[in-house]
Design a protein that fits this description.
It is built from four helices and four strands; from the N terminus they run αβββααβα. With about 120 residues, it is of the alpha+beta class. Helix 3 packs parallel to helix 4. About 30% of the residues are buried.
Length: about 120
């Protein structure tokens, strides 16, 4: 039996999730990506293949708006709030949450909670 590493398992799970979840113009997909150091979110319309909103903890807007959050969960929560604010500016209120193969726990959950608090409906 060949042992799969964590990233291979996540990619397999991601493909399975994407079979059931897709973004439409009415309900685009909110995708979360976690790297070793940073978090990224995108709101994507899969019917046209366009990214409508993108945010990350590296963005200039994030750094200006939220002065030095130190806790990773706090950063994730603030990123969810920023994503929701940017989505509201583009008249997006309802989204489909794509956890991108990650467990809905920890930082991914904090992004989701922040986005809900910011006004997005899942």
């Amino acid at each position: 039996m060949i042992r799969k590493d964590r990233s291979q398992k996540r990619e397999r799970l991601k493909r399975h999730i994407r079979l059931t979840i897709s973004g439409t113009p009415e309900r685009p997909r909110l995708s979360v990506f976690r790297s070793a150091r940073h978090l990224y979110t995108q709101i994507i319309d899969d019917s046209t293949g366009r990214t409508l909103v993108a945010a990350s903890d590296l963005a200039k807007v994030f750094k200006e708006e939220f002065q030095e959050p130190r806790n990773p969960k706090e950063i994730a929560h603030k990123l969810g709030l920023l994503t929701a604010r940017l989505a509201k500016e583009k008249n997006i209120t309802r989204v489909v949450f794509d956890r991108n193969g990650y467990l809905y726990h920890g930082l991914v959950k904090a992004v989701g909670d922040g986005a809900r608090e910011g006004g997005l409906q899942f």
